[in-house]
Amino acid sequence: MNSMESNQAQPNLFCSPEAFQSQRTLNPYVTGTSVVALKYKDGVLMAADMGGSYGSTLRYKSIERMKPIGKHSLIGASGEISDFQEVLRYLDELTMQHNMCDDGNSLGPKEIHSYLSRVMYNRRNKFDPLWNSFVLAGVKKKPGVDDKREIPWTGYYDRSAVNKLQIANITEKGLTISQPYSLKTFWGFSAFQNPTAGAQGS
To answer: Which of 77, 178, 183, 195 has the greatest count of CB atoms below 10 A from its CB?
Structure first.
C-alpha cells in the first residue's frame, strides 16, 4: 500500500459524524463550594461564597450561586457552575410558562422542589447527570399551612471557600440577596506559621 492509499484509509476525524455528536460531562470543571441555609421564625437565611475553582485552583472570585425563583423560592447551588446555569434556564422557562397561564397562582418551593427532583432523576437515568447539589428555600403560606423548605446547617467550614460572599433572606414578605462583600481575614496566628508543629512524624 502506497502512502496515498494509506492516507485515504485513515478517516478524517474533524469531518466525521462522531466529531459532532453531543458529549457528556464526565467530570465537573469549574465548581462552587458549599451553600449554608438556616431556618428561623419568619423565614430562611442562606449564604454562599463566590469562589469558582478550576480543579484545585481558585480561578473565579465573583460567581453568584444563589438565585430567586419566582416570588416564593430561592435556590443555592454547589458543584459545576455551567450545570447550575443550565438548571436556571430550565427554571426560567418553567416560571415563564406558569406566568403565561395568568390564573393568579404562583409556584412555591414545594412545586419547585418536585420539578428539580424530576429533572435530576431524568438526567441521571440518561447517564448525563447534572453535577450539582442544591439547597432550595422558600416561604409560601396558605390558610392553615406553613410551607417552608430548607436545609439547616451550623458551624460548617469548607477549605475551598473564599472570604467573598452573599447572604439571602426569604420571608413571607419577599426575598432579598445582599450585595457581595468580603470578610476580614487574619493570617498572623502562630498556628499558621508552622502548621505541622507537633504533628506525628514532623
So the answer is: 77
